[in-house]
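Bumping with the actual sequence this time:
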Amino acid sequence: MPWTGLEHSARLKPRPARLAPDAPLAWHVPRVQYLLVLCAYFVGAIPFGVLIARGLGVDIQAKGSGNIGATNVTRVLGPIPGAVVLLLDAAKGAAPTWFALTNVGDPWIVIACGAAAILGHCFSPFLELKGGKGVATALGVFLVLCPELVAISVIVFVVILKVTRVPALGSLAAVATISGLLLARGDSYSATLAIGTLVLLIYTHRTNLAKLAAR
């Protein structure tokens, strides 16, 4: 099946149906691909914010907003721990997506790995299916799939944040921008992931949005 619209993307390209003879695993075998998606979920589920805060003697879920992401870690522990959490949360989205992109021929498996990592962050089995908002992990996923669009979305985030001073609105606007640009260039695979991510982020930010609506 042709990859509709992906001729515009330098990242998502059809890959050979067979791997090199010395490939360590047959990544084109469906059961192996499904295992890869499951692994992506558990990688995404690693609660770096909790672990780093705990290493500094703080229960981050009991401080600030209670969120495990970089924003709350920054507020509670400062910019350096916050930046470390941001990088690690982005990396756990980027790593499984990159691995699938460079080793698997099925574009839906690539997208599934990215989605699984984001879902793992938001609904971590290590935190009783609780987690973060998913923004940083989604950033890592889309840095692999469409880095040029992420650059545009970061600008949108900064502008919206400066105008509204509400990170949640900036994050949603950034993902909405990526979704629109992917649809415009016909990248149906990545656009599907981006739209799904936008819906998920609306859900994970529902408390923030309810507070804004109540103002």
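The tokens above came from a reply further down the thread. Residues 79-103 form the longest helix (25 residues).
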